[in-house]
Amino acid sequence: MRTGIVAFVAGLLALRFLPALPPTWLLSVLALFGLMLLPFRSYPLAFFLLGFSWACTSAQWALDDRLPPSLDGQTLWLEGQVSGLPEHRDGVVRFQLDEAVSRRTRLPRSMRLAWYGGPPVHAGERWRLAVRLKRPHGLVNPQSFDYESWLLAQRIGATGTVKSGERLRAAQGPAAWRDSLRLRMLQVDAHGRQGGVAALVLGDDSGLAPADWRLLQDTGTVHLLVISGQHVALLAGLVYALVAGLARWGLWPRSLPWLPWACSLAFASALGYGLLAGFEVPVRRACLMVAVLLIWRLRFRHLGVWLPLLLALAGVLSLEPLASLQPGFWLSFGAVAILSLVFSGRLGAWSWWRTLGRAQWTMAVGLLPLLLALGLPISASGPLANLLAVPWVSVISVPLALLGTLLLPVPWLGEGLLWLAGWSLEWLFLILGVIADWLPAWLPPKLPLWCWALAATGTLLVLLPAGVPVRGLGLALLVPLFFPSLERPEPGRAEVWMLDVGQGLAVLVRTNGHALLYDTGPRFGEFDIGERVVLPSVRSLGVQRLDVMLLSHADNDHAGGALAVQRGMPVARVLSGEPSRLSARLEADACVAGESWEWDGVRFATWRWADADKGNATSCVLRIEANGERLLLTGDIDEAAERALVGSGMTVRADWLVAPHHGSRSSSSPAFLQAVAPRAVLISRGRHNAFGHPHPSVLARYRRFSLEIHDSALTGAVRVHLGEWLPAQALRAQGRFWREK
């Protein structure tokens, strides 16, 4: 039985690693073959094929429900109902629209929409909207949040921007009740932590500021403020312990068997908490795990602890095979497996403080391979922070928040309890802030497979019971994590990454021992590309410090993320064509024509139009040469600046050209292209951007000059091995079945 379950789970998990989905006819053949094997008792192969075919079929249904390519970028009138809890932040309303209909075409079942400057939108309302629809699309970089994967896992088939709309029906249903409860909670004075209290009760994390997220990430405590399996299991455990305690003290009615009632009430409380939190995929996963665990405790405890974990894993993936695309899935089941491994074989009873300390230590070590594989930050202060925060949130914050929410109809009492819950969170964040300042999170570089395998093996050995002879070897196998052997360009060569930052620019240049960042991408309100995309990608490539951060000019799409990058890693020098318009904290030097330097056999030279007044024309131009191969970065210079550059006497001929001003009609003049004579052009821009970049006439001009065109909106991040005379590599070309090619 266990072998069959393991094989079934392996088939379901195989979906996560597929570069492309098999054709439908092949999946039907595999499923039929699996069924035919069952009478011959070939259970492992049969169950693997059944799990694999079901996972791929479910994923194909989700892909087929995406917006048709013919409607990408089109504006349609449609009707639908708002689901989930809308997010209101910085004048933007973001919400999910389900069961949308249009007279012109069939639409995906779920869409994620944004309404800039729109009116309040509430869950359960029905709207008629004019929406500019887009197919699911996200930025693709060496290390950043995979938005396309997240959208597919949520089965969201389109995104869009609302142009106008009218409310057809007022809010109604359970979603409307949750939304009204959230509004009521946010009106309570909770020391400014109303958003955190709502996150604990309703699973609504939109009230947490970016600074809060950074703090939770640095201390490894994100799981405490976002409703997860821990919260659901905590409530179920409290109810179970209450019934068991009453039975032990003789206060439980003898006519009612305490164990079945304890399990039933515990599951009912977990289910009620899940419904209150919206019953999203992580909560459904937690409720299923609690149900399996309680059934095991009630009837099947003699079968061991691993069977319920396998059954829960199989149940979660059967109901939603796309759950394996989410990091939370791997971390939650990984955490349960680690705790089961460590505590199932212990001898005797441990004190509560020893149990808590052992749990935090083993979780910090045990989840290390998963965090590395998923590219997530590793918090060195996590064990200490969680040692304090887990009982704090579990015993103080969550009970106060839930009880206060339940008693909100009672004047003063419910609000007072929520006030106390907010007070507890405020003090928790203050303490976590001290810990984070002392030891922030570490984002390790992307490790070679052999190094990761050593770390995973070492972790497993360390977690083995004391007394196992090879256990000490595990610590030695973890050493390469802290001294990784990273790939570096050879002397005289350079590695260039044009990152995918949407409508903006960020280019990383690495030599054998130095690193330069040309521009840092944009910042939109609290969403900072420098923090969310550029910094994680640069760190994942093994860069720990920047020798130069060159900001071509001060426009937001080129310098918006500069402060976040400077805050995240040491920067030796900042250069800019417009230093006076930048923040004084950057302490930028002025870019001047004729400055040059050499790193590891790679030559750099800058130029700036001295007659430029301000804006795009002041962009600092950078030329890089490695082994005779040149790259020219031009910022946002216009046609007049191009003429000045060509006439300046600087050698402008280059093999690679980063398109001036994202391919704007005011740049890339024929005379400039003729002088540069590149063989390829790199365009950094956002898909469906409001400026129409790149302009069709400019694209036609590039084609007339027979240039290879690498467009970040179509290719994702692009890698160039300067000095190797090789073709560029596009990250979007790497096989991921959920990405458009």
Task: Fill in the keyword field for this structure.
OB fold (Dihydrolipoamide Acetyltransferase, E2P); single chain; eight-stranded mixed sheet; 741 residues; alpha/beta; cell membrane; globular; Competence protein ComEC; seven-stranded mixed sheet; Metallo-B-lactamas; 22 strands; ComA-like_MBL
Descriptive report:
Its main location: membrane. It is found in: Cell membrane. It comes from Pseudomonas indica. It holds the Pfam family Lactamase_B. With 741 residues, this protein is an alpha/beta fold. The protein has five domains: 2-64, no CATH class; 69-172, Beta Barrel (OB fold (Dihydrolipoamide Acetyltransferase, E2P)); 229-325, no CATH class; 449-481, no CATH class; 494-733, 4-Layer Sandwich (Metallo-beta-lactamase, Chain A), CATH 3.60.15. Helix content is 44%, strand content 16%. It contains 26 helices and 22 strands. The strands form four sheets. Strands 13-12-11-8-7-6-21-22 form an eight-stranded mixed β-sheet, with no helix packed on it. Strands 14-15-16-17-18-19-20 form a seven-stranded mixed β-sheet. Strands 1-2-3-5-4 form a five-stranded mixed beta barrel. Helix 9 packs parallel to helix 11 (281-299). The radius of gyration is 28 Å and the shape is globular. The mean pLDDT is 90.
